Amino acid sequence: MKNRVKIGVLVLFMLVGTFAFSQNRPGRERIKSLKVAFITERLNLTSKEAQVFWPLYNEHEENIEAIKRKERVDVLSKLQDFEYLTEGEASRLLDKLLDLEAEKHRLHIAYMERMSEVISAKKSFMLIRAEEDFKKRLLKEIQKRRKGG
């Protein structure tokens, strides 16, 4: 029964999150809040774990988002007219993209190493799964809203 209540609350959060997603910045903040609630629920963090976990998690999210912004500005924005790029320009953009992908990979490895000092290996895998499940649910809700259902 307790699990049903938890699932009901999560579904409600997801529905509210989908509505919030259709809005601009405030919606993104609401989705972030829903993601935090979802992960907290899934990991069942102790208060001691949570005190160390969330600052580390948020720092990683900010670092990855900064790289993604750089990728959008420095590489992807230039690909809109890619047919006009010279081979040399395309090669330099590809090198830049590969460097940014490598940086994301390095950050992720360092993050997981640091995270494994904060939460157990099992909870680390639960975190990965929770993030994937959250993305899947959010995408399903977005698709459902676009279909009008």
Distance between the termini: 28 Å
Percent helix: over 70%
Mean of the pLDDT scores?
84
List SSEs in N-to-C order. HHHHH
DSSP summary: helix tally: 5
Number of DSSP E strands: 0
**Whole-number total of structural domains:** 2
- Overall geometry comes to globular
Strand count, sense and closure of the main sheet? none
SS class: mainly alpha
CA gyration radius, whole angstroms: 19 Å
The fraction of residues assigned to DSSP E strands is: under 5%
The stretches of 5 or more residues where confidence is low (pLDDT under 50) are: 3-23
Using brief descriptors, characterize the structure shown.
149 residues; mainly alpha; 5 helices; 0% strand; globular; disordered N terminus
Written account of the structure:
This protein is mainly α and 149 residues long. The protein folds into two domains: 1-44 and 126-149, no CATH class; 46-118. It has helices spanning 2-21, 25-43, 47-74, 87-115, 121-146. Helix 1 packs antiparallel against helix 2 (25-43) and helix 2 packs across helix 5 (121-146). The radius of gyration is 19 Å and the shape is globular. Mean pLDDT is 84; it is low at 3-23.
Concise account of the structure shown:
The protein folds into two domains: 68 residues, no CATH class; 73 residues. It is built from five helices and no strands.
Would you spell out the secondary-structure blueprint of this structure?
Elements: H1 2-21, H2 25-43, H3 47-74, H4 87-115, H5 121-146
Helix pairs in contact: 1-2, 1-5, 2-5, 3-4
